[in-house]
Amino acid sequence: MASPLKILPVWPGDSVGVVSPSHYLGEHQLAAGKDRLERLGYRTIFCQEPTLEALPFAAKASRRADALTLAFTHPKIRAILAARGGGGALELLPLMNPGVFRENPKAFMGFSDATAILLFLVHQAGIVAFHGPTLSKHAEEGFACTLAALNSGGFSREVRLMGPEYKVVIPGKAQGRVTGGCLSLVVSLLGTPFMPDLEGWMLFLEDVGEPPHRLYRMLVQLRLAGVFERVSAVVFGPLGVSLDEPLVLQALGDLKIPVVMGIPSGHIPNMLPLPLGILASLDTQDGVLRYLETPFLD
Question: Pairing between strand 158-160 and 233-236?
Answer without folding.
Answer: unpaired
